[in-house]
Specification:
This protein has nine helices and 18 strands. It is of the alpha+beta class. The strands form two sheets. Strands 1, 2, 3, 10, 11, 12, 13, 14, 15, 16, 17 and 18 form a twelve-stranded mixed sheet that branches. Strands 4-5-8-7-6-9 form a six-stranded antiparallel barrel.
């Protein structure tokens, strides 16, 4: 299984929240050669099942989100310019002058750019001002609203950064939707490893929808899978750039990370505190397999775990990740070796889970 090629293929697939179809089927096809069964549930989650040998062992769900953040068409002007709004946590300061792709109602993608006032006509007091997204617009080259609508583009259609993938120095890669296509590629890598293991628990590898929109897709997958244990694969923030070196110890190329604490702190009072038994198992697995495991804790970031952990009687949950720079921009950057290490770690964890694992927090 070529991890880098799989990651490139996934990153170049546009899949905004709520419109993950192409990515869901791509992930399904990629995991099919390894799993006992792969299906797509009613809301679009891709679920691969690996049957275990011990029916008393807790069921394990390992998951990563398939969707990416983007934009929604809010209004089409009579002169053909398109007003937009957020679909997820878009950073406004990176938007002017960007290339986009708009999804029309027939599922086709159309190129466009986010217009910005010509530099030569921009007053000095505006040159360094960040414009709110509601004051920006998409230009697809149309001269009327009718021309836009002839392409099937209407209010409510989604848009994404133009998909890109680029290899940088060493084993770094850069592009769109590394968050969380790195996790999705990791699921395929894990699937290739699980095929040769004699697992005790039933294991489900799941690509989830809606994470960037409302963090609820994984909840719905859990209602199908009914896991006792859930392990989320997503990005963590690195502290190896000049602007963040005083905030985090994590770094690209330093190995996968275990997330011990998250808390959003804005809008929703939600977050996660790592299940100690799973944390200890992750640390032991990393030690026994010779994997360098970084530790991460942060405010202002959430994953699907925040709500999945509350399903049923409570799901023992752990978040694992790979450091990614410049999150939610078109140039997300990570190290392929961290993703490979994450897959080795996750596979090693489930290989060590049996009927005696304590699901309680204490």
């Amino acid at each position: 299984m070529d991890l880098k090629e799989t990651l490139q293929r996934f990153m170049l697939l546009p899949a905004p929240s709520g419109y993950e179809k192409e990515m869901a089927y791509a992930l399904k096809d990629a995991m099919a050669p390894y799993a006992d069964e792969v299906s797509i549930d009613r809301i679009g989650n891709t679920i691969a099942r690996f049957s275990g040998t011990d029916k008393n062992a807790p069921a394990v769900m390992i998951y990563a989100h398939m969707d990416q953040l983007g934009f929604i068409v809010r209004k089409i002007e009579e002169d053909g310019f398109i007003q937009l709004d957020r679909l997820g946590g878009i950073p406004e300061k990176v938007l002017p002058g960007l290339n986009l792709m708009i999804r029309s109602e027939d599922g086709a993608y159309h190129p466009g750019v986010i217009g910005t006032k010509s530099h030569h006509a921009t007053p000095a007091e505006e040159k360094y001002k960040v414009e709110p997204i509601t004051s920006l617009y998409i230009d697809i080259g149309a001269v009327s609203a009718g021309e836009v609508k002839e392409k099937g583009i209407e209010a409510g259609c989604p848009a994404v950064y133009r998909p890109s993938f680029q290899s940088l120095s060493r084993d770094m890669i850069c592009g769109t939707a590394a968050d969380d296509r790195g996790g999705c590629a990791c699921l395929v890598y894990i699937a290739s490893k699980l095929k040769s293991l004699k697992l005790k628990p039933d294991v489900y590898l799941v690509g989830t929808v809606w994470e960037e929109f409302n963090l609820r897709g994984a909840m719905m997958a859990a209602r199908t899978v009914k896991p006792d244990i859930a392990i989320c694969l997503d990005v963590v923030l690195p502290g190896d750039t000049p602007d963040l070196k005083s905030k985090y110890d994590t770094k690209l190329g330093g190995g996968p990370a275990v997330t011990l604490y998250t808390f959003h702190g804005r809008g929703t009072l939600n977050g996660t505190i790592a299940h100690e038994g799973l944390r200890d198992l992750a640390l032991r697995t990393a030690r026994e397999q010779g994997i360098t495991l970084q530790r991460f804790a942060a405010l202002g970031i959430l994953t699907d775990s925040s709500y999945l952990q509350l399903e049923g009687r409570g799901v023992a949950s752990l978040e694992l990740g790979y450091p990614t720079r410049y999150t939610h921009t078109p140039v997300e950057t990570c190290d392929i070796n961290d993703i490979r290490g994450l897959g080795d770690l996750a596979a090693g964890i489930v290989d060590r889970i049996g009927s005696g694992f304590n699901l309680n927090r204490y």
